[in-house]
Design goal:
Radius of gyration of chain A: 28 Å
Distance between the termini of chain B: 33 Å
GO molecular function (chain B): 4 iron, 4 sulfur cluster binding; coproporphyrinogen oxidase activity; metal ion binding
GO biological process, one term (chain B): porphyrin-containing compound biosynthetic process
Largest sheet of chain A: 8 strands, antiparallel
Bound molecules: guanosine-5'-triphosphate, S-adenosylmethionine, iron/sulfur cluster, magnesium ion
Largest interface: A-B, 29 and 51 residues
Strand content of chain A: 25-35%
CATH class of the largest domain in chain A: Alpha Beta
Structural class of chain A: alpha+beta
Number of helices of chain B: 16
CATH class of the largest domain in chain B: Alpha Beta
Number of domains of chain B: 2
Distance between the termini of chain A: 33 Å
Largest sheet of chain B: 9 strands, mixed
Number of helices of chain A: 13
Number of domains of chain A: 5
Keywords (chain B): 4Fe-4S, Chaperone, Cytoplasm, Heme, Iron, Iron-sulfur, Metal-binding, S-adenosyl-L-methionine
Shape of chain B: globular
Radius of gyration of chain B: 21 Å
Shape of chain A: globular
Function (chain B): Probably acts as a heme chaperone, transferring heme to an unknown acceptor. Binds one molecule of heme per monomer, possibly covalently. Binds 1 [4Fe-4S] cluster. The cluster is coordinated with 3 cysteines and an exchangeable S-adenosyl-L-methionine.
CATH topology of the largest domain in chain B: TIM Barrel
Helix content of chain B: 25-40%
Strand content of chain B: 15-25%
Organism (chain B): Knoellia locipacati
Oligomer: heterodimer
CATH superfamily of the largest domain in chain A: P-loop containing nucleotide triphosphate hydrolases
CATH topology of the largest domain in chain A: Rossmann fold
Chain lengths: 622, 408
């Protein structure tokens, strides 16, 4: 701990001039959470004994994967000299944010609670796609950017080179970029000083009716919903009644305080302060992110501009392998939803997979994390269907159907199909331009522009159908660029596309779980691939089972599972009898939970294998 | 070698629950004798057999007969006076003819002394074609043997080589002829599906077997038993794994060739020229007969109790020498287990199963089995019996699962 870390300024009694609210933004893995660790230590809010790497990544899943999923805000004291040359005590509210593209909405919320952003760039990697995306967001929010090169301790670090790149990007001098190592702590104290100097203090009217912006809302089993706020005007105090401005619902403030880095209850929060509230509500939907909190006694006339709920981009059916687990799955989803406003779901029934839920996610990583949490925290075995996007289908009569489940994609009489598109940014060494263009073309991409960041690094901007991006785009991008490319994308409306639904039929019966909406030119490849895969996975039956891929009534691919011809033990004499009977007893007891498609019996494992072997993949770390 | 089943401990006295022996005599009663010696172990074989002829006191080829007689004493005292005369004796192995013929005869004499033999008793021995001579066969026949089952396996030299068989094809003909001359009913065993065996190889083996004019032919699909040399060869990719489709084709060919030659099936893997030519002893396994299995690793069944002896000939001889039963474990079948066995065994034979012996699940399954061509519809309707069609024989295990409700 530095001698400059002192806790003199108390919440509720901190003048806005002494507050600096900032977030740390970067591409995934560039070291945000590690830098946050050093800040926590230097400012003394976490002592050396309690310290552990990525202290703020508290969820098991974050620790295992080594990534941040949820933003975390922490109040830290710091003594320094401000831009006007005054020495004094300051309060830094730091928010560590996630870097993965699926969680960009977490970054947006954090930005809305800050006046500045530390833009962190790995000095061995340089600027990457999410660096640009997050920088862009920060600039949209009018934040002051503090450019920082991290990991300068690495032998492969090229801080001068990337300082130039960074300076070119944000329009500063290369010397303005700070050099730090989150690992060793080098440069972190000067960075804290610069944060105080460069980032403006919050401005608000202390005498106006209270207005605080909810930027996060988390369900906690013991304490109910914990709501994170940033006070803009006025102040909030314990025991008083507050109003959620969008719903006009009133709650009593049972507890109010700051996170440092554990919750510390206090006497209230004043202008510019960041902290938490507990009102006893049990559902995060009663304390919605983006809403404005005000006082019941003197309510504000107008709320602060909120932000939109994140929109699910990717849908997938989740089914319990054991059908009797359906109620468990429902309860589990209800519980996860308390903490994850971005998760949406509704019941779905599949001929092949039984009862389950069609769930909407922010992206594939989000899907994977929700699924993993359901399996681990609720002990469920699940099958998830091939992820898909949302289609708007206009019928000949002008009616529009919104399709979130490919099996509901209508046949015939379709006037127009619209699919979501994204604007994507790909950063890579320039030697890979050809390979990337080829890939994007194959994925129906349209080049929007290309810029050289430096002599040998290029930024390509493409418009791509989201469906192509969520399939296996990222894996292919990585493999074609030997891992050097990074990708970011944002939704960018929709486009008309020549899409068809391919059904997979087993002995003439549609296996709904395998229906897929694909571009006309890819229908044949998909049909062939799926039919071939099922042929390998479905055990032979006592009769021949044709597998067909079809668009409407037109069969585009077929395979045959030949009938099983022999299933008999050749010898069965005295000593074989007990053994044989015991085997049957075992089979009876563990009676296979077959899924029936017409008369074809399919072990769930076959469906799982068919659905999982290439379920696409930008889920890995970027 | 297949492991022994898990079961309850068997009492040292070998005593049986009284209800299991109560109905002795109402069913055929047999004696099985297991002789655990072979000159060479065939790569595919997992039977309880040893190539050493000296395995310790009471467990060598020269003393084995006496050990077997000691177990027959035990059998006699456990079964008591109600014991019926013996309908069938089957000496199997291993290679029983590794023992001097006189020893085998001595055991049959011992059975006669202790239990009596039925007038029409069937006494079979297994033998390898190169383990018998006209003299030894005559001695067996004179000593009460009525039947011999010879391990022919194939007529193709390369198949015999793959199977590690020591005999040459022509030896089988000589052995069958000598056995017939001695007055024995003859049977040959065939194996199909050996890696490298063509359909023509198999056809020639069938033709060769038919031309020997035995009373009885067994034809087994080659099973790759765990722990055998063959299994290791398959695992290492040295030989190809037998293919189910190929074996199905070969089974169909066997049915075709054998029926054309006047043989009819009476069990999934067994054909005979006349109904009287069946192996009655083996038939007993499929129809719930009682039998006492003598010898190491031998299995027995009496009135719903199944038990099995310790496997090693030395352990086997030691326990008998100490006056204890050599049984390693046993199980007393529940009503449901008996019905399951009745279904799984009964379905394999030509006479099939009575529909009325099935439970509700089984009875409901029959219509579907008929519709799928696995069960003979006429017999099901007219005789109320479940009898497999040719296709059903090839899928007999699936039929059993459906009759027992394991599969739907
Ligand atoms: N050598 C070195 N390694 C660092 C430094 N900072 C972070 N790392 C390593 O970089 C990896 C990623 O660090 P994190 O702090 O989890 O990165 P992050 O930006 O928070 O990642 P996300 O939250 O997933 O976006 C870890 O293995 C860190 O140990 C540094 O200054 N020097
Ligand atoms: C117990 S063996 C003894 C017969 C004798 N020792 C012989 O090999 O000629 C009886 C028959 O079982 C058959 N057999 C043994 N192992 C087999 C296997 N793994 N697969 C198929 N049949 C097998 C052979 O046809 C063999 O003739
Ligand atoms: S001779 Fe018969 S019992 Fe002996 S190993 Fe060969 S097949 Fe098995
Ligand atoms: Mg992190």
């Amino acid at each position: 701990m530095s001698p400059r870390a002192r806790t003199v300024l108390q919440p509720h009694a901190t003048p806005p001039e002494a507050i600096r609210n900032f977030c740390i933004i970067a591409h995934i893995d560039h070291g945000k959470s590690t830098l946050a660790d050093r800040m926590l230590q230097i400012t003394g809010v976490v002592d050396d004994r309690a310290m552990r790497a990525q202290y703020l990544d508290r969820m098991d899943i974050e620790r295992e994967r080594g990534i941040t999923i949820k933003s975390q805000a922490v109040r830290m004291p710091w003594e320094t000299v401000d831009a006007e040359g005054r020495t004094g005590d300051f309060i830094l509210n730091m928010i560590d944010t996630p870097g993965h593209v699926d969680f960009t909405y977490e970054v947006s919320r954090s930005l809305a609670a800050s006046e500045g952003a530390v833009l962190l760039v790995d000095a061995a990697q340089g600027i990457e796609a999410q660096t640009l995306a997050n920088l862009y967001l920060a600039m949209e929010n009018d934040l002051t950017i503090v450019p920082v090169l991290n990991k300068i301790d690495l032998p492969a670090a090229q801080p001068e080179k990337y300082a130039e790149e960074l300076a070119g990007l944000i329009g500063c001098e290369p010397e303005d970029c700070l050099m730090v190592s989150g690992k060793t702590g080098v440069g972190v104290e000067p960075l804290l000083d610069e944060i105080v100097r460069q980032i403006p203090h919050p401005v608000g009217d202390p005498n106006a009716p209270a207005r605080a912006m909810i930027f996060d809302s988390v369900y906690d089993t013991y304490r109910g919903v914990v709501t994170y706020v940033r006070v803009v005007d006025g102040n909030l105090n314990p025991r008083e009644k507050i109003i959620m401005m969008s719903t006009r619902a009133t709650h009593e403030l049972l507890e109010i305080g700051v996170i440092s880095p554990e919750p510390v209850p206090g006497k209230g929060l004043g202008v510019g302060e960041v902290g938490y509230l507990i009102t006893g509500v049990k559902d995060v939907r009663q304390s919605r992110v983006g809403d404005t909190v005000t006082n019941e006694r003197t309510p504000a006339a107008e709320g602060l501009g909120g932000y939109r709920d994140p929109k699910p981009m990717v849908f997938s059916g989740l089914f319990p392998i054991d059908g009797s687990d359906y109620p468990l799955l429902r309860d589990a989803l209800d519980k996860l939803k308390l903490n994850d406003a971005a998760l949406v779901y509704e019941p779905e029934t599949s001929v092949a997979l039984g009862f389950g839920f069609r769930c909407g996610f922010l992206g594939l990583l989000h899907l994977e994390i929700v699924r993993e949490r359901l399996e681990r925290e609720f002990d469920l075995d699940l099958i998830s269907t091939q992820p898909n996007v949302v289609y708007d289908v206009t019928m000949d009569d002008g009616s529009v159907i919104v399709v979130t489940n490919p099996s509901e994609f209508p046949y015939g009489k379709v006037a127009e199909v619209r699919e979501p598109v994204v604007k994507s940014t790909i950063l890579a060494p320039s030697e890979f331009i050809g390979a990337i263009m080829e890939l994007c073309q194959g994925k129906r991409g349209q080049l929007l522009g290309m810029d050289y960041l430096s002599e040998d690094r290029v930024e390509l901007r493409y418009s791509l159908p989201l469906a192509e991006v969520v399939f296996d785009f990222f894996d292919q991008l990585k493999s074609r660029t030997r891992g050097y490319a990074s990708l970011d994308y944002q939704e960018a409306g929709d486009q008309v596309a020549d899409l068809v639904k391919v059904d997979i039929l087993l002995q003439g019966e549609n296996v709904d779980a395998f229906s897929s909406v694909v571009h006309k030119d890819k229908a044949y490849a998909y049909g062939n691939m799926m039919a071939g895969k099922l042929k390998e996975l479905i055990p032979r039956q006592q009769f021949e089972v044709p597998i067909q891929a079809a668009i409407g009534a037109r069969v585009i691919a077929r395979e045959n599972i030949r009938a099983i011809r022999k299933d008999v033990l050749a010898k069965c004499y005295g000593g074989d009898i007990s053994r044989k009977r015991k085997l049957l007893e075992k089979q009876k007891a563990g009676k296979k939970r077959m899924k029936n498609i017409g008369t074809v019996e399919v072990p769930p494992e076959a469906f799982i294998a068919a659905l999982s072997s290439d379920d696409g993949g930008d889920t890995k770390k970027k | 070698m297949p492991r022994l089943p898990d079961g309850d401990p068997a009492p040292a006295s070998g005593e049986l629950p009284s209800q299991s022996i109560a109905a002795l005599g109402s069913r055929p009663f047999g004696i099985y004798l297991h002789v655990p010696f072979c000159r060479v172990r065939c790569g595919y074989c997992d039977f309880n057999t040893y190539t050493l002829t000296e395995l310790g006191p009471g467990a060598s080829t020269s003393t084995f007969a006496d050990t077997a007689l000691a177990e027959l004493d035990l059998a006699r005292s456990v079964l008591g006076d109600a014991v019926p005369r013996v309908d069938t004796v089957f000496v199997g192995g291993g290679t029983p003819t590794m023992l001097p013929a006189a020893d085998l005869v001595r055991v049959v004499d011992g059975i006669r002394e202790r239990f009596g033999l039925a007038d029409d008793v069937e006494v079979t021995t297994e033998a390898n074609p190169d383990s018998v001579t006209p003299e030894s066969l005559r001695e067996l026949a004179d000593g009460g043997f009525t039947r011999i089952s010879l391990g022919m396996q194939s007529a193709a030299p390369h198949v015999l080589a793959t199977l590690d068989r020591t005999h040459e094809p022509a030896g089988v003909g000589r052995a069958v002829a000598a056995a017939r001359d001695a007055g024995l009913v003859t049977s040959v065993d065939l194996i199909y599906g050996t890696p490298g065996e063509s359909l023509d190889d198999w056809r020639r083996s069938l033709d060769a077997a038919v031309s020997l004019a035995p009373e009885h032919i067994s034809a087994y699909a080659l099973v790759v038993e765990e722990g055998t040399k063959l299994a290791a060869q398959v695992r290492r990719g040295e030989v190809e794994r037998p293919d189910d489709d190929d074996e199905a084709t070969k089974y169909e060919l066997a049915e075709e060739v054998l029926s054309a030659a006047g043989f009819g099936w009476y069990e999934v893997s067994n054909w005979t020229r006349t109904p009287a030519g069946r192996c009655r002893h083996n038939d007993g396994y499929w129809t719930g007969a009682d039998w006492w299995g003598v010898g190491p690793g031998a299995h027995s069944h009496v009135g719903g109790v199944r038990w099995w002896n310790v496997k090693h000939p030395r352990a086997y001889a030691d326990s008998l020498a100490s006056g204890a039963s050599p049984a390693a474990g046993r199980e007393t079948l529940t009503v449901e287990q008996r019905r399951d066995e009745q279904v799984l065994l009964g379905v394999r034979v030509r006479d099939g199963l009575a529909v009325d012996d099935l439970d509700d699940v089984g009875r409901r399954a029959v219509a579907g089995l008929v519709a799928d061509g696995l069960v003979d519809g006429v017999a099901a309707v007219r005789d109320r019996r479940v009898i497999l069609t040719l296709r059903g024989r090839l899928l007999a295990d699936a039929v059993v699962r459906r009759l027992l409700g394991v599969d739907t």
